[in-house]
Amino acid sequence: MAARRLPPGALSLKQFLRRQQVLQLYRKILRAIRDVPAEADRHYLKDWAREEFRRNKDATEEDAIRMMITQGNMQLQELQRTIKLAKS
Predict the structure, then answer these.
(1) pLDDT per residue over 18-58, tens digit each?
(2) Which of 1, 4, 25, 60 is most buried, taking the most CB atoms under 10 A from its CB?
(3) Residue 56: which of 22, 30, 79, 14 has the closest Cα?
(4) What is the pTM of this model?
(5) Helix, strand or coil for residue 1?
(6) Which residues contact 11 (CB under 8 A, 6 or more apart)?
(7) How many Å apart are CA 8 and CA 43, to the nearest integer?
(8) Would you call 71 helix, strand, or coil by DSSP?
C-alpha cells in the first residue's frame, strides 16, 4: 500500500485541530465583546482581540500555541466576569 502524501502546505491532523481551537476561542471572545455595554469599549476590545490574534498568527511551536490558547481562555473568563459585574 503506497503511503498517502499531503499536498504542500496542508495541515496535519494535530495542526488542524489546534487551528479549530484557536478559531473557536476567537469567536467566543468576539461574542463576549458584543455584551459590553459601552460602544467605545466594545470597539477597543474588538481591535485588541484582532491585533492579538494577528500578531500571533504565524506561531508554529506547539507548546507556545497551547500556552496562548490557555491565556486566551483565562482572558475570556475574566472578560465575561467583568461584563457580568458591569450589568449587575
Answers:
(1) 999 999 999 999 999 999 989 999 999 999 999 999 999 99
(2) 25
(3) 22
(4) 0.85
(5) coil
(6) 19
(7) 38
(8) helix
